[in-house]
Amino acid sequence: MRRQPRRAEREPTVALINIVFLMLVFFLVAGQIAAPVEPDLRLVRVEGAENAPPGDVLVVHADGRLSHRGRPVASAAAHLAALPEIERQRVRLMPDRELPALRLVAIARELTRAGAGTVVIVSGTTAP
Predict the structure, then answer these.
(1) What are the distances in angstroms from CA 118 to CA 30, 43, 92, 114?
(2) For the chain: N or C, fewer Cβ within 10 A?
(3) Residue ranges of domains in the chain
(4) pTM for the full model?
């Protein structure tokens, strides 16, 4: 009686391809749902930093103007005062690339003095 040769076990590559495809579709849809950033804002580039998607941030323009959700803000302290208590614990700033660093530091200090728990700088890593 002859022994039948054993077939090599096949790896489930089709299932892996399906999972990768579904992840691709998910990220494409999730990227379209995110709120758009103001069009005249050029983000700071940081190499090797972990990205967080922009959310409810205080935007600092190149000339030092502040805006929140497209509306002008009088000052960083006024923005903080308008936030609910829970959101004051972690305030996110999104500076324009052309904003002088001294102005950014001054705004961060103003937020801290006004009672912000943590001030986080949100940056982008996209090419100009």
Answers:
(1) 27, 21, 8, 11
(2) N
(3) 58-121
(4) 0.56
